[in-house]
Amino acid sequence: MSDNTSNSGLPDEKDISRAMPSAESLAQSPKAVIECFQEIPCNPCVEACPRGAIKITEGINQKPSIDHSLCNGCSLCVYQCPGLAIFVVGIDRDNPSKGFISIPYEFLPVPEKGEIVDILDREGVKIEEGTILKVNDSKATDRTRVVTVQVSSGLLSRARFIEMKRRTK
Amino acid sequence: MKRQTDIAVIGGGPAGLSAAVEASSFGLKIEVFDDNFTPGGQLIKQTHKFFGSKKHLCGYRGMDISKILLQNCASAGVTINTEACVTGIYGNILAVLYPERFEEVESKAFVVATGASENCINFVNNDLPGIYGAGAIQTLMNVFGVVPAKKVLMIGSGNIGLIVSYQLLQAGVKVAAVIEALPNVGGYLVHSAKLRRMGVPIYTRRTITKAEGDGNTGVNSAVTSQIDPNFNVIEGTEIQFDVDCICLAVGLTPLSDVLELAGCRMKYIPELGGKVALHDEYMKTTRDNVFLCGDVSGIEEAVTASLEGKLAGLSAALYLSHEYREKIEKSRLQILEELRIFRDGPFGEKARKGNEKLVREYKYER
After folding, report:
1. Is the peptide bond before A109 cis (omega within 30 degrees of 0)?
2. How far is B178 from chain A (nearest CA, A)?
3. Domain containing A59: what range?
4. Which of A21, B152, B171, B304 would bridge with B300, disulfide CB 3.0–4.6 Å?
5. How many Cβ atoms are within 10 Å of B122's Cβ, its own excluded?
6. DSSP letters of B82-142?
C-alpha cells in the first residue's frame, strides 16, 4: 500500500518522454511540449496554435496531439492552456550545452530579464540556477506570463518551474 | 398587491444567470434572487482560467466570466436582487428574506439554481478556529483580500482542493500538503502537477484524525494517518503537520431544500452528490412550472452549470409561451449536444450515470 508522495499527482514518466520533441526537431527550432495526459473537457490549445500543429480530432475530451514538424515554438499556446500544462523547450545554437524553457507563470513578483532564479523539477526540487532571458507580460497573456529561462540542455525534460530569490515587498 | 414576475430565478451563479439571460430573449420578465452581496456565485472567487472550449467562455478566468454574464443580464433587462434569501416556494409565491424586510413575490415559473453546500468530515476538534471550507478560504482571499492563514493543510485532492491550494500559494500562503483518502488524486492531473512542481506533496490513502490547538488561538497542528481500503486508520502511520489552518475540500451536496419544499419529487443519487429533484433532460421537475439547473441538479462544474442553466431558462420560457416553440426546441437540442460532448470523457462519467438514473426515474414517476 503506497502512502508516499512520489507518484501522487505527477505525470507518468513514459508520457513525459513521449511528449518531448526529438533531438532532430529541436535542432530546427524550439518546440512546445504538451503535458496533458488525461482526457479532460478542454481544447483552447487547438485554436491557440496559428500553424495548426495542435489537434483534438473528436469532441473536446480527447488528449491533444502536436505535430512537432509544424511547431516553431512561438509559445502562444503556453499562456492559453488553462491547465498551465504546455511548455516550450529550445536549444541555443551557438552553445548547444545550453538551452531554455518557457513556462507559464502566475506569481508575483514578475521575474525580470537578467534575473537569476532557481530552476525546479516536477517535484519542486532545485536542479540548477538559470538566468531569465525573456518575460512575455503582454495583455494577451491575461496574467499568465510566459517566462523564458536559461537551462542546461540536458535538463530540458526535467526543468518545469522557477523559484524567485526575491519576494514581494 | 404582490410584486409579480414571469420567471423567478433562485440563485445568481453561472446556472441561474445563464437561465435568466436565455429566458429573457422571449419578452418575459425575469428576476434573479441571490442571497449574497455580489451575484456571480462561486465564479467571483475563481481566479484561474476555465477549462472547456472558447464557445463556453473557457480560457477566461471565472471572475471575468461572471462579469460577462452580469453584463449580459444587464443588457437583457434582467433584474437581480441581492441579499435576497429565498426561504421557500409556496404555490406560485416566492418567499424572500432581505436583511431588513420580508417579501412575497408572485411568479408564473421558477428556475431553482441554488448550487451546493460544502461537506464536512469528522475528526477530533473539527470545530476549532482555523478550520475552513474551501469556499470560505476563497471568499476571504479572493473576494475580501484577506490572507486566511500562514500555513494550510488541504484535505481533499479534487479539483477544488487542488485549485484552492494553488490560489493559496499565489497569495503567499504555504501549503504543507494535500491529503486524499482515496488511492488516487481526484482532480485533474494538470492541477496536481502545478502543485507538485511548487514542492507541495500529495499524500493519498491518508485522512485527518485530529486537529490540535485551542479555542482562543485556533489550530496549531493537524494529525493525519494512513487508511486501509475500508477507510480504517492504520496505527503507527501518523504524520503531524504544524499548520494554523485546515482547509476542507471534501465534496459538495446539492442545496435542494427549496425544491423539496416546493413539492418536487426527490431522489437520493450518490453519483450526483445527494438528494436531487427528479427532472427530465430539459431540466423540468415533477412540478410543471419548476425547473432546475447547476449543482442543485447534481454536482458538476461551471460550464455544465451554465449549459444546464440555458436549458432550464429555455424550458421555463417554453412553459410560459408557445409562440417560440420551434426556436426553443431547436436551441435545446443544440445545448443537449454540447452537454453530451462536454461530459463525454472519464471525468463526466458520474454526471452521465447520475443523470441517466434521474431521467429514468422521472419517466417512471410520470
Report:
1. yes
2. 10
3. 13-163
4. B304
5. 8
6. SS-EEEEEETTEEEEE-SS-EEEEEEEEEEE---EEE-----BTTTSTTEEEHHHHHIIII
Q: Decide: A122 and B197 in contact? Cβ < 8 Å.
A: yes
* Helix B14-24, helix B302-320: angle, nearest 10: 30
Task: Convert the pLDDT of each residue in A93-128 to its tens digit.
Answer: 999 999 999 999 999 999 999 999 999 999 999 999
Which of B49, B173, B179, B233 is the best substitution to test chain A (most A C-beta atoms within 10 A)?
B49
Residue A2 located in a structural domain: no
Residue B156 has pLDDT above 90, yes or no: yes
Q: pLDDT exceeding 90 applies to what percent of chain B?
A: 95
Fold of domain B3-117+252-365: FAD/NAD(P)-binding domain (3.50.50)
CATH number of the domain that residue A49 is part of: 3.30.70.20
pLDDT of residue B124: 98
Looking at residue A3, its pLDDT comes to 46
**How is domain B122-248 classified at the CATH fold level?**
FAD/NAD(P)-binding domain (3.50.50)
Question: Which chain A residues are closer than 8 Å to B195 by Cβ?
Answer: 9
**B26-61: pLDDT as tens digits:** 999 999 999 999 999 999 999 999 998 878 888 899
Give the distance from residue A109's alpha carbon to the nearest chain B alpha carbon, in angstroms.
Answer: 10
pTM beyond cutoff 0.90: yes
pLDDT at A7: 58
pLDDT score of B365: 80
Give the separation between CA A130 and CA A144, rounded to whole angstroms: 20
CA pair distance B101, B83, nearest whole angstrom = 11
Decide: A122 and B190 in contact? Cβ < 8 Å. Answer: no
